[in-house]
Structure formats: C-alpha cells, structure tokens
Write a structure and sequence with these properties.
Elements (H helix, E strand, L loop, with lengths): L13 E10 L5 E4 L11 E6 L8 E9 L2 E4 L12 E8 L11 E6 L9 H8 L3 E5 L12 E3 L4 H7 L2 E7 L3 H8 L3 H4 L4 E6 L14 E4 L2 E4 H4 L2 E3 H4 L1
Parallel strand pairs: 7-8, 7-10, 8-9, 10-11
Antiparallel strand pairs: 1-2, 1-6, 2-5, 3-4, 3-6, 4-5, 11-14, 12-13
Bound molecules: FE2/S2 (inorganic) cluster (FES).
Amino acid sequence: MPDAPKRVNIFPMKTAKGKVDELFLDGSARIHCPPGLIPIPGQYLLAHADASDSPLPIPLFFSGFTPKGFRSAPPVPSTWRPGESLTLRGPIGHGFALPYSAKKVALIAFDESPARLRGLISMSLRQNAEVALVCDSETADLPEVVEIQPVRAMLDALQWADYAAIDVGRENLNQFWEMLGEQKQAAAGFEAQVLVRAPMPCGALAECGVCALTLGHEWRMVCRDGPVFELYELA
Ligand code: FES
C-alpha cells in the first residue's frame, strides 16, 4: 500500500475576520482570509456573516487556492454579497492526506459536485500522478490531463487507483456500498478516504450530535472525527 501520512487535523483552530471577495454562478465563493485559516482539502471553516440574524454558521470547504484566501465549494448562502464581512473559525476536522507515493489518483464525487475534491487535482499533478475524476455533474476548467468518468465506473476507478478520495453524503452511504456490491470487503483494503457530508451546525463546539454517524457499534461525529474518514473505517 502507498505510504499514507497520518490524517491531518490542525489545532488549535483560530477565529478571524474574513470577507466574501466574489460569488460565482455555480454557488461557490472566493473567500478573503488570513493564510493560517485556509483549510486543506476535506477540512472546513465555519463562517458566520456578521450582518446575518441566523445563529448558525455555514461550513465552507476548500476547493482551490486564490491569491488572498481560497475558493469555497458550493453552496454558500444566496443572501451573501461581495464584500460581506465574515467571522471565520477553523480550520476544523480531518482533511484528505494524499500519499506522497500515489501515482494514480481517483477522485470520486459520488452524489454531488466534485468541488470539495478539486483541491486534490493540483496536488496530484504536482507529484506527477495521473488523475481520474469520477462524477456525474458538470465540470469546467479542468486540466486536460484529468480523465472524466461517470459514477457507474466507480469500481473500475477504485481498482485502477493507488489512492482514492471520495465525497459522499451521509444519507447515501448505503447506496455507495450497494454500488460496490460484492466488492465491499475488497474495498476495505483500498487506499481510500471518504469525505462524509452531514449538517454540522456547531462544528464540535456544542456537541449537538446532529452530525452523528454510526460506525459498527460506535457513534462518531462527522464534524470532529471526520469529515474525512478512512474507507475501511466505514466498511
Ligand atoms: S455539528 Fe454538533 S456535534 Fe457535530
């Protein structure tokens, strides 16, 4: 198996001011923030718009670097406007850990946009890895060398790759395993990590339990113990 570094979780998390620099048609946003707050792929920040009445912050996932911060994966609230002042807390949680030796990387957006996985494309190409992006949604502005495959080819991609990063909603985990079928046990041996999406209103501060995930006989919190888990932990 490739030499996977330990999962990354950067503490202590910080709180700082930031702002929305630009909004994009796909629902993502360019976020201006201090360098120390920029999450790695798979991690998130909690963002609260200073002008908002809502008590709940929004998780912002990394999708790519920008000169003064990062581009967040969609969706951001439709009420946000360019220049909106934000209070940001993070980075939070375990992100993806791309093995240094990975030469065939599969990025699998099982049920949504691949935006949360996009940050891994440039990292993979920098270490001369081939990249296959598996998704059923529209993709734009991808490097030509990235091969696009439909989700029905997921198993082939997993077998081809020496590292896979997967994005799946908590509510679709059963469907994910059903699609692997008899390969479920074999899949536990793949070098793969899974970003599990779930509502994360408190980001581990209040232990609200909304993000709970059952693993075997244990409860785990997606916000704190994930959102990126090893595939074998979920099998
Ligand atoms: S979001 Fe509250 S415990 Fe995870």
